[in-house]
Amino acid sequence: MILISTIDIVRTSLGGTGKLLPVAILIICAFAAFWLFPYDLGFLTQMLIMMVFVVSFDLILGYAGVATLGHAAMYGCGAYAAGLFAIHASPDPLLGLAVGAVIGALIAFFSGLLLMRAHGLSLLMLSIAITMVLQEIASKARDVTGGADGLSGISMTPILGVFEFDFIGKTAFWYAFSVLFIILVVLRVLVASPFGLALRGIKDSPSRMRAIGTPVYWRKVTAYVIGGTIAGIAGALSAQITSLVSVEAFNFALSADVMVMLILGGAGRLYGALIGTLVFMTVRHVAASIDPFNWLFVIGFMLLAVVFFLPDGLISLPRRVAGMIGARK
Amino acid sequence: MTVALSIVVDGIAYGMILFMISVGLSVTMGLMRIVNLAHGGFAMLGGACAHVLTMRYGVPFVPALAASVIAVIVIAIPLERLVYRHIYRFSELEQVLATIGIVFVMIATVNLFLGSTLLPIRMPPEVSIPINLGFKVLPLHRLIVIVVGLLMVTGLYLLVERTRFGIFLRAAVDNQNTAASLGIDTPKVYLAAFALGAGLAAVGGILGAELLPIEAYYPLRYMVLFLIVVTVGGMGSIVGSFIAALGLGILDTAGRYLLPDVGTIFFFLAIIALLALRPNGLLVRPS
Q: Which residues are CB-neighbours of A153 under 8 A, at least 6 positions away?
């Protein structure tokens, strides 16, 4: 059953319209958001950065089935790396992204060597502890990172020497969108590749994958490094666009939010990560602006409703509705 | 030498508080196998209740403690019947999501009625009487905490290992169907164990309020700490949680005394080393 469904997923993801339709929808949505909410570009850009971050976690949790609660480690290191690089080395944004990506990958590699050996609860706790250590180092190394005050004074030269960062955030929006778009394309190819299939296999049954000769541990480390690279890019984007890095980039709450957004949207489907981020951040933004004190009620009940009624995430909603209508006929 | 003794005594007092708050989690998460991130929520509800009773209505501390624990159990029972019963069957990740949802609702409820400021609990003035131990002067409160912690670990150990309820609970957790076919009323056993976990959380929250102050975001702020105690101790091992809580309490206190700048880094590095060497915790019940 699992085998057939996996092949089906790969076929649909390689099919003609199945490949282009979501991409077209994504671009249309970006243009629509850009024209409809010109005064919320800052918030929309935050959402795009978060989408990059959540998609990177989807590769680890949704595809490889590795549940961690310390994904902020790579995000925070990417952010600090890009911030420090911009201040001390070069203010070029794309070079900064590359630095964030490399640092994210390095952190993911060294922590992944340890983390990918652990399972279940001790994996969750180890990933939290590693993030806590990094956060403490960032807040104690005041001379380098600015400590609890955060790292400020990051300024950027125009992207590719042409597109200057403007006050309203138009450039930032398209910059973040382009990065998200490229990463989605890369990840789509990746998850349909033999490597992506191996990850799904490891998620469904690690012992069978080991039996057919897959180096399970190294596949998981590789997935973790790729996820960490993208998380580092997300952190670097956030540092460049907000011109500020604070120790809160390592917060446990951020790692938890990422997991919540991913499961909310539907893990194991790249677009589920986008939908989860969109819905979670929009609901939180709207609820917090309507009632700054009691918005947590809305988020709490939304989480419970999704777990109880849509266990596969919001992305399964159309199919569930179609199934209910079909059942009635 | 004096420093070492001070570290041990302060560490044990802190560890006892950690143990009291986490032991309920050891019951729900360790014995019942649910990733119950809402555990700190019950501690907070107990603390908030004690705050209202002692500060607004001037109820003395001991009756307020009893009333708050009963109130938390009264809240936990319908919650178990209506919500948690379904959560038992979920996958681990869905349990994480659902219980975080419950935490948010709890935080919002306390925030709505009491605001987001600190919620102090008034204790009788006698508890701050200093007691001279010879090498160190300690407020009576710490000694009470140590004694109550010791009573709790003994009582729970006897309850789980030596009573009929303990046998039923372990049987129901190991294999629910077999236990049910032997005539054990598993839903009732689960309900009782859950209520026990919530009640213990409330006791720990109230007695520990001196060190971990009660406020609306309490369950999120200290969630990691409670989870670490249970994980390091080993799932389902009450004695393991006890040793882990004392060990982590002493470790954290030692870090603060000896390496004030890097104490937290030292604490978490030690936890990483421990979990890397013993991924299933210090003491794990052989299955």
A: A87, A243
In a domain, B287, yes or no: no
First to last CA, chain B: 42
| Cβ pair B108:A296 closer than 8 A | yes
**Domain containing B131: what range?**
2-277
Query: CB distance B101–A253 less than 8 Å?
Result: no
pLDDT of residue B87: 86
A303 domain-assigned: no
Task: Tell me whether residue A2 is in a domain.
Answer: no
Contact call for residues A94 and A249 (beta carbons, < 8 A)? no
Q: pLDDT tens digits for B163-178?
A: 998 888 888 887 888 8
Task: Using only the alpha carbons of chain A, give its radius of gyration.
Answer: 20
Q: Is residue A132 part of a domain?
A: yes
pLDDT digits (tens, 9 = 90+) for A28-74: 888 888 888 888 888 999 999 999 999 999 999 989 888 888 899 99
CB atoms within 10 A of CB B273: 12
B102 touches chain A (CB under 8 A): yes
Q: How far is CA A307 from CA A96, A260, A290, B86, B87, in A?
A: 39, 11, 25, 10, 9
Question: Using CA of residue A265, residue A271, residue A277, residue A282, what is the dihedral sign?
Answer: negative
Residue B284 lies inside a defined structural domain of this protein: no
Contact at CB, B101 and A307, closer than 8 angstroms? yes
CB contact (8 A) between residue B228 and residue A125: yes
B273 contact A CB<8A: no
Instruction: Give residue B5's Cα distance to chain centre.
Output: 26
A102: closest CA of chain B, how far (Å): 24
- Yes or no: say if B101 and A264 are a contact pair by the CB < 8 Å rule: no
Minimal-distance CA residue of chain A relative to B86 = A308
Which one of B91, B103, B104 would you mutate to disrupt binding with A, by most A Cβ within 10 Å of its Cβ? B104
Does the beta carbon of B265 lie under 8 angstroms from any beta carbon of chain A?
A: yes
Report the alpha-carbon distance of residue A139 to residue B254 in Å, rounded.
Answer: 21
CATH of the domain at B125: 1.10.3470
Is B286 among the domain residues? no
- Across the interface, of A118, A137, A263, the residue whose CB is closest to B275 is A118
Specify whether the CB–CB gap between B21 and B198 falls below 8 A: no
Q: How many domains does chain A have?
A: 1
Residue of A nearest to B261 (CA): A140
Q: Name the nearest CA neighbour of A202 among A6, A4, A1.
A: A6
B257 Cβ under 8 Å from any chain A Cβ: no
The answer to whether residue B283 sits within a structural domain is: no
A192 is in which domain, residue-wise? 46-251
Closest residue, chain B, to A298 (C-alpha): B105
What is the predicted ipTM? 0.82
| Structural domain total, chain B | 1
Cβ separation B231–A307 shorter than 8 A:
no
